[in-house]
Write a structure and sequence with these properties.
By secondary structure, this protein is of the alpha/beta class. The protein has a single domain, classed as Rossmann fold, CATH 3.40.50. Helix content is 31%, strand content 18%. The protein has helices spanning 29-44, 59-63, 84-91, 106-114, 142-155; strands at residues 19-25, 49-56, 69-71, 96-99, 119-123, 133-135. Strands 3-2-1-4-5-6 form a six-stranded parallel beta sheet, with helices on both faces. The N and C termini lie far apart (41 Å).
């Protein structure tokens, strides 16, 4: 995971971010539905280019999936994903990449650590090397997480946020 140590990480105003990546738990139908609605909103309302990849707990689910994914069967014995969809996702030059996993998973943090994204967002993790922003929410709810994402992304680095006098 040391490969990306020299990669420049930085945030930029949400209005200037064009490419967004999303990693989520596709075995959780509620999360999948919530993420798909969020993807639609990012694409239609905010005109963002969004790429997403889902993780399935078993291989059978991946056969009927209509989106890029990986499963437990794609993980090595040390839980490193060995999958072409993952390889492509982690090399995409996203402006922002978001990990929706509710709790830390080694393979999720691995993907985020190796991501070529400028700004990486995660939730409920102590792996500070994998993210520029970690949202530790008390209410573990995807809709609540999206609300926090919206708040932080629209607040950080927006041009209208001039420094306030002391």
């Amino acid at each position: 995971m040391q490969k990306n140590k020299g990669l420049e990480r930085s945030s930029l105003p949400f209005s200037q971010a064009n490419r967004i990546g999303i990693l989520f738990n596709a075995s959780n139908k509620t999360q999948e539905d919530c993420v798909m609605k969020y993807v639609d909103r990012l694409r239609n309302k905010h005109k963002k280019i969004v790429t997403y990849i889902g993780f399935f707990n078993n291989k059978e689910e991946t056969k009927v999936s209509l989106f890029k994914n990986y499963s437990l069967n794609d993980l090595s014995w040390i839980l490193i994903p060995k999958n072409e969809d993952v390889n492509i996702f982690k090399t995409e030059p996203f402006d922002i990449v978001i990990n929706f996993f509710e709790k830390p998973l080694i393979h999720g943090d691995y993907i985020m650590t190796l991501s070529k994204a400028r700004f990486r967002i995660g939730r409920n993790t102590e792996n500070t090397d994998a993210y520029e922003l970690i949202i530790n929410e008390k209410k573990k709810d995807d809709a609540h997480f999206i609300g926090l994402l919206d708040t932080y992304l629209k607040t950080f680095n927006e041009e209208s946020n001039d420094p306030q006098p002391a």
